[in-house]
């Protein structure tokens, strides 16, 4: 895993590349090429995972010298692809060397053959075209900026912020952020900086200085999704087991030791159990716990899972005293604000893992493709209980207490007839009137960025399946995987996600939802698979994930600190958001009248981004 930085007609030095040095502390280089009137700079920082020798050094030319690549990620099936390149005399065994020569032979569209996690740029010297590419599920981020004859792209925003001055906030994106708690591709809340869509290939024409979409490999894949109702439950259990085991085995590839994040739940335990079969060493596992209510700390559950699985287990316990300081650090690392409070937790457990291993497996993706969240049950039952839901909405005053914020959101969303609008309301943090008070004259109500992938989902697919598919290509990629990548790479470790193996996801998207939620059991089919590897003690535990006692902290120990962060004379967010409303929100926590932790957290996250933008890098 690595970091990339490339520019057209905008020079940069090692100092700028070093802003992403944490992504690749083992090696770095910058190549400068002139193609007619264009000056191209390609920078790379390397975290050596496959082929630790100089044969894996980047930027890397193809054997015919017609292409040059800077690559961040892993292509797990590259040895299979290499079999189709018998004419190439390879210098080493890195996946980068495989894919640059594979694309030199089969063209840029052959990216569809790559099973892995990646963001890269390929320069076609003869065609004078720069391609930038993001993997199918957006596991690896990729940002870009284009103006006139200048083009900049990078694994992170910081180099772009340094190379281009006078950025402003995109207030339409801020409106979207207050609803969804993140910005789906291609938006960021910074004007001019965009993200490549998951699965997208963009091409920059060096002759015309134009940037256009070449193709998005997900367009066709999503449009062709068909639920297969002709297979039995036993068939799906065996098929998922086979694909998951193959995915984990594939992702054990590399020349360094592989560890695993281990919470108390089923997803990480299942990945860890399978991974243990494919390593000679006792696998190392990592977990974070929290001081506060026992319901949030799964350190004991994880420790018990480690005992059962026979791993070498390590954990760390975090508390509120450290929170504000580490939140500032993790927000700076994440760059994009988000409303997911466990960003902090991911950073802390990543620091722990970095002490022992360079590669760590994670269970992300299982909840989206196998329907692990409560909202899927709500959508599944919606049609059956719609008349009762509409009746309850007439008496919503009975649920006016802030403790019932989840019921309030359900009533707000589930009565919406239009499917995409309903999904937007389900995800909503600040409802329309709340957002209007916060933004005042900057309030807008544009359609969110969810529509791009939603419009590719076949009409005949059920609404619950649509929600699962949409989550896979939006909130998973641009929120959860985004901070997962940033937090792990900040500590110079590579996070791999076996549940997002191409073959496994393609299979999961065919499985009828009746096997994903059955008799009220979420991820039912995955739990049936888990019976082959795990005891019931782990399978039947209540779901926690990397959750935190945030509400306790926001209502108590941290309330004054939050007020100081957001409402002091030094606060930047009050230049964009109504200060009185922010103060009211914080006081509602203090007075135990606000229970949705996301509302204040996403404001805190935005404040830290504003501080980053205001800081001279």
List keywords for this structure.
single chain; 617 residues; alpha+beta; Glutamine Phosphoribosylpyrophosphate, subunit 1, domain 1; Rossmann fold; 3 domains; 6-stranded antiparallel sheet; 26 helices; 41% helix; 16% strand; globular
Explain briefly what this protein structure is:
The chain is an alpha+beta fold. 41% of the residues lie in helices and 16% in strands. Helix 24 packs antiparallel against helix 25.
Give a verbal description of the structure.
- The structure is a single chain.
- This protein is of the alpha+beta class.
- It folds into three domains: 221 residues, Glutamine Phosphoribosylpyrophosphate, subunit 1, domain 1, CATH 3.60.20.10; 216 residues, 3-Layer(aba) Sandwich (Rossmann fold); 69 residues, no CATH class.
- The chain has 26 helices and 17 strands.
- The strands form three sheets. The protein has a six-stranded antiparallel beta sheet, with no helix packed on it. A six-stranded antiparallel beta sheet has the order 4-5-6-7-11-12.
- β8 and β9 form a beta hairpin.
- α7 packs across α21 and α13 crosses α14.
- It is globular.
- The model has no long low-confidence stretch (mean pLDDT 92).
